[in-house]
Structure prediction request, 265 residues.
Amino acid sequence: MRFANKVVAVTGGASGIGLAAVRRFHNEGASVVIADVNDMGQAIAAELGADRCCYQHADVSSWEEVQALVRRAQGVFGGLDILVNNAGIGSLAATPDLAPEDWRRVFEVDVNGVFYGCKAAIPVMSARGGGAIVNTASISGLAADYSFAAYNAAKGAVINYTRAAAIDHARDGVRVNAVCPGPVETPPMVAGRATQIPGVRDLWNECIPMGRFARSDEIAAVIAFLASDDASFITGAAIPVDGGLTAHTGQPNLPVLMSKAGMAV
Prediction:
């Protein structure tokens, strides 16, 4: 019950990592506002119970709707202690093929949404003596992927904005960190068609030292840690949760290749 008497808002909270975070915080005692453009959040809030959960329709690319989200947390539960800026989208295209409107939309949701959330939440948290913000970035903000130009740029921006907000507001008692997931067992934003190609999933798993995708609850566990008092001296961090993927240089696994070729290692 690390989050008893805490108020948490999670954007993109109706599915995937966001939903796993909602459940984790709620299970540990928090009152939670589920923010999403997916109105399935209403059913989830009803399942969890109106005493400690509610749904707010919120498009994070709108400053007005993000402000309304924070006001909802204050109005229903009395304040806001933790914000998870989780909502995000992607776009599969290299620069020559990337439509300007797609570039703008990715930045409106992935970067502006994080900024709007922090801008609305930090004054409220500061007035309450402090709080914690966790931004969902990505390992795609730490290194590049083929044909994910907008997503790579946006998630890189989220990571460095996280650092900027962290140092600006450390003495206000507001900690700001980022979680950087690798591949996760959720409905993929963009790569869904690629995962249907025969053999692609096996190849993907071979690239991950732990040999599998993460579960949403594994990402939520790190989000909860960063938001908790267990991380009281951590701010400005970008934590990869990727099964070792970014620890790897990307070069072939030579012992495995040699073994397949019948060569001694």
Notes: The chain has a mean pLDDT of 94. The chain has one domain: 7-260.
